[in-house]
Specification:
- Chains A, B: InterPro entries: Alkaline_phosphatase_core_sf, Sulfatase_N.
- Chains A, B: Pfam families: Sulfatase.
- Chains A, B: One of its GO terms (molecular function) is metal ion binding.
- Chains A, B: This is Arylsulfatase A-like enzyme.
- The structure is a homodimer.
- Chain A is of the alpha/beta class.
- Chain A has 2 domains: 491 residues, Alkaline Phosphatase, subunit A; 33 residues, no CATH class.
- Chain A contains 20 helices and 15 strands.
- In chain A, helix 9 packs parallel to helix 12.
- Chain A is globular and about 100 Å long.
Chain lengths: 548, 548
């Protein structure tokens, strides 16, 4: 076994932390992910840096906070020059390979400005946030003209699923009893079986493509990180047979919500509750239709991972591959009278994270859970370490998890951070919040979850006394809560004034910053004697050029 | 006169705001800058974004806070992809031309990584922070091997000033009575005449080079911003005859300092006072030697500007050229028992700023002073506006000063910000502050100046009752001061959590963010009726591809 293993980094999209049996779901059994947890470490306090796809992923792929990389919302290009995991791996001779979704938008304006051809090797990697795109598919093709079809669309047509939008008409629609298409864009159709056999679904297809990549990589020597990135269980919520019919109302865990929450006096929370998606998921019949489909999608994903892991076993890949399973954010599913994601309750901002490290150093932690405060940006430096990259503390803001995987000291974090830019949203429109001010930031120290809301009072939960986050203490007059708010603001200020953009201060640059006396640039020396007293050198020794 | 004038942006280095007669110096008469103020606006509250050359200038040239561009200290490369004034001007068909100093360090690592040839047109502009380098000279050549000589070194040799380091041996040294060289790196030599006639000094040379540029630009049609950037009155403090002998002890304004300041209990302030340069400039004999030279350098600069302005008059350039005079930071000169710059008292962080706009819209403001809170980052958007560039609020953090120049409403600012990264310093070493934590940030609202010091208590001055900033209220137990500190921390938190890095959110990107219903991506719609109620459109109208 090599000291530098490969990494299979599996990411589901919109997968709640608590919809896996290893995280305690009573009815949704996910034996393959559970088995991975049994030979790895299961993290119980893993948080994403934004509760929405694009910015969360840009943080995952750069190892940097949203504040730092600047891609604060879906579709906002990651700027040219923002260093990614792939860039760091390439320096060490390793590959970062994409199979699936990133939600990356290329910075076409930035490339044009710097003269980078988007079709060149460098242009492609800049456009794919540092990855080598073995397969790129963001998985949402609501109106996809044929020239912009994904490889999956082509695959469907090649297998006889003929349509102008095979993604939508087969993989993301059901059929009524007369054979008419019923779109899964409408929640009422979630309980139907998808109009596609499971083996041609998106989840199965992308699993196959990961195998294709690993098979091809076995021909080469370069170590790799393969990012296998599934679109599901993200909406449209629909799953092929037999998974559409595995779960029913009896398997739905009760909603986490209280009537008192609907009476919030917080203008932003009020606006969330008034947003259509939240009102929709507050209705029991929506939950009852959608959650069984969501559970089916997760069950299907787990089965596909079982298929993938068995294949890796057969190919001898398991023993030299670190496998991580995680998600880019969760899904409210009606909890707290909310739908989709976009805020910071646990089911939205906390994600499952299981990492199985085959190296013997990890033998002592197999099957354990870690309650360390972990951020999604920690994966990049962890993988970099595993593949032998040099550390880049001036760029990477995440922290290497290797000590936790290997049962060693050396990892610590006092709080996790997540950010959200809601300028695009119904909330911003209904509250008339300027684009620049439509921002919130969460800080969580393991007990207190504090959400700073620009222009509004903060939101505060005490997870020690209120683990379900039902009581907002943001306006509490209890002095103890005031003290918490002050402490959290101070921690946020310390964090937000950090040098998030100081990325050119490489160790070489810092080492090159000679003292004034060393550089020959002398500030404040009166005479030769003072110079000699301070430096131990004669003043004339500074002038190697000699005198004319 | 064209609607789009040119801009001559003159920057002195280390020029205190109060060492010009138009800003009230009683003995240092600067009639040419005063005359510019008489036909323009003199800003009395202009602040730099860092009290040190490099980061202050990178803010000036990008229109962005230090936090945003990330070049937090001298020699820290400005990252590839950080947009500059020059880039914005080029888009509008205008030129940004450099004559003199920028303190820019090229991001060689970033260019290599993005495949940008440093010698290409794009590589040169990336290396010169967006400028077209007509002449680049940062003005400090303590040990300059011949192959790295500046054009000024070559100029000196061509004029007979032969040496292995002509910059140092002629322009920055004096002679003793025996004709031996005495280096101006040592303060005791400041009163000597520089070993060069005035007309071959750095200030005169760079003035000539600005004329050379403007002469050449008259052949072309493209409007321009010419950044004429002098190294002086920055140290080494030495000036050619007759300026070396114009001022003596009787012309030195008294130091701004109190004995009580030396008893500070603030660890960081204590460390500043213990730093060599501060101890040096706390000695009266140092002040008495250096200040007359510093005044002579400013007088020489003013005379050269007089020569330049007369030449521009003769060439007919004045009537179509906005002229701005400013500095990148000040100089303590022993005030507050400190030397050089690097902190936030007025003489370090506040700079002179005079802008004369020849357009008739500015006729109403000629000869007036503005006490608006202005930042150095405001110049870039002001010049962009003048030259017809589109506004870029997603990138540019400064605010267009045109309303102030034209006597109109539309400019407002509640506070100015300045930042400092002291990781390199004696203070960081003596206090053992980690590189990441060696940072301070100043916020000033026109009355209260508050300095947040990571790891230490804040520093606070009330300029209404203590305009000389002699009493640090950072530890005051007066509840009124506590309220100010809380308000300032809140303002800093709002500022520091802004989207400083969200630079790809162009108006086009934001406009392209369709609502879910417009994009065909539907979240939370139960059925066709709900969709129609919400959007006014039939659900089927979303499927232009038709049904199979």
């Amino acid at each position: 076994m090599s000291d530098n293993p490969n990494v299979l980094w599996i990411m589901a999209d919109q997968l709640r932390f608590d919809y896996l049996s290893c995280y305690g779901h009573p009815h949704l059994h996910t034996p393959h992910i559970d088995a991975l947890a049994a030979r790895g470490v299961r993290f119980t306090n893993a948080y994403v840096q934004s509760p929405v796809c694009g910015p969360s992923r840009m943080s995952a792929y750069t190892g940097r906070y949203v504040r730092s990389h600047g891609s604060t919302w879906n579709g906002m290009p990651l700027r040219v020059g923002e260093p990614t995991l792939g860039d760091h791996l390439r320096e060490a001779g390793a590959r970062a390979v994409l199979v699936g979704k990133t939600h990356m938008t290329a910075d076409a304006e930035g490339m044009a400005w710097l003269g980078i051809d988007p079709g060149s090797d460098i242009g492609v990697r800049v456009s794919e946030c540092g990855f080598e795109p073995f397969e790129r598919d963001d998985g949402l093709h609501p109106d996809s003209p044929r020239q912009r079809w994904s490889a999956y669309d082509d695959y469907l047509v090649a297998h006889g699923y003929t349509s102008d939008n095979p993604w939508e008409d087969f993989a993301n629609s059901g059929l009524d009893t007369d054979g008419n298409l019923l779109s899964a864009w409408l929640l009422k159709n979630s309980r139907l079986a998808a109009n596609i056999p499971e083996e041609h679904s998106e989840t199965a297809y992308m699993t196959n493509r990961a195998m294709d990549f690993m098979q091809s990589a076995m021909q080469g020597d370069a170590p790799w990180v393969c990012h296998l990135s599934y679109i599901k269980p993200h909406w449209p919520y629909i799953v092929p047979a037999p998974y559409h019919d595995m779960y029913d109302q009896s398997h739905i865990i009760p909603p986490v919500r209280s009537d008192a929450e609907r009476d919030t006096d917080h203008p932003l929370m009020r606006a969330y509750l008034d947003a259509r998606v939240c009102k929709s998921f507050s209705r029991d019949h929506v939950r009852e239709h959608v959650i069984p489909a969501y559970m089916g999608l997760i069950k299907q994903l787990d089965d596909n991972l079982g298929r993938l892991f068995a294949w890796m076993d057969a190919k001898g890949l398991t023993e030299n591959t670190i496998i991580a399973v995680t998600s880019d954010h969760g899904d409210y599913m009606g909890d707290h009278w909310m739908g989709d994601k976009d805020f910071y309750h646990q089911m939205a901002v906390k994600v499952p994270l299981v990492i199985a490290d085959p190296r013997p150093q990890a033998d002592g932690t197999r099957g354990t859970a870690s309650d360390a405060l972990v951020e999604m940006i920690d994966l990049a430096p962890t993988f970099m370490h595993a593949l032998g990259c040099r550390a880049k503390p001036h760029v990477i803001e995440g922290r290497d998890l290797t000590p936790l995987l290997h049962g060693q000291d050396g990892f610590s974090r006092n709080y996790v951070i997540s950010e959200h830019d809601y300028h695009w949203s119904e909330m911003a429109r209904s509250l008339n919040v300027p684009q620049e001010d439509a921002r919130t930031v969460m800080i969580f120290d393991g007990r207190w979850k504090y959400v700073r809301c620009e222009g509004f009072r903060p939101v505060l939960f005490d997870l020690a006394t209120d683990p379900s986050e039902l009581t907002d203490l943001g306006a509490s007059t209890d002095p103890a809560h005031d003290a918490v708010r002050i402490r959290m603001d101070a921690a946020l200020l310390s964090w937000s004034t950090r040098h998030h953009s100081r990325i050119t201060a490489t160790p070489a640059v810092l080492a090159g910053q000679k003292t004034a006396a060393e550089s020959g640039i002398l500030i404040g020396f009166w005479d030769e004697g003072e110079y000699k007293d301070a430096t131990g050198k004669a003043f004339d020794s500074l002038q190697p050029h000699g005198r004319p």
